[in-house]
Amino acid sequence: MNFVYGHGGGVIDTLAWEGFREGMDDIRYATLLQQLAHPLVRAADFKARYAAKKALQLLADMNTDSFDLTAARLEMISHIVALQAFSK
Questions:
Q1: Is the separation of the CB atoms in 16 and 3 below 8 Å?
Q2: Choice between 88 and 81, residue whose per-residue pLDDT is larger
Q3: Which of 2, 21, 27, 34 has a 20 to 30 A CA-CA distance from 72?
């Protein structure tokens, strides 16, 4: 299976490459979400603790058979933005 096909002016991406790229983006979102949430789980601010636990619960509830990947990405991004506000 090829990720890309050679072309005179460069390369042509394949569906395999796009799937791989989206998977890597998902891993980056999930990693950043965890990195932001874990320090806030024990924060003094109740809202920060709640946001962190809610974000981690989102990751725990993800099931590859029963959720929409696009919606999951949007949810992760939403939680990341919220946690970044508490991290400042």
A1: yes
A2: 81
A3: 2
pTM assigned to the model: 0.84
Give the pLDDT confidence of 27-47 residue by residue, as tens digits. 999 999 999 999 999 999 999
C-alpha span between 82 and 61 (Å, rounded) = 19
Residue with more model confidence, 37 or 7: 37
Distances (CA, A) of 45 to 10, 11, 41: 52, 50, 10
- The two beta strands, 4-7 and 10-13, are antiparallel
CB atoms within 10 A of CB 3: 14
- Tell me which DSSP letter residue 62 carries: -
CB contact at 8 A, 45 and 33: no
Instruction: Report domain extents, the chain.
Output: 4-87
* Spatial separation of the C-alpha atoms in residues 76 and 73, rounded to whole Å: 5
72 three-state secondary structure: helix
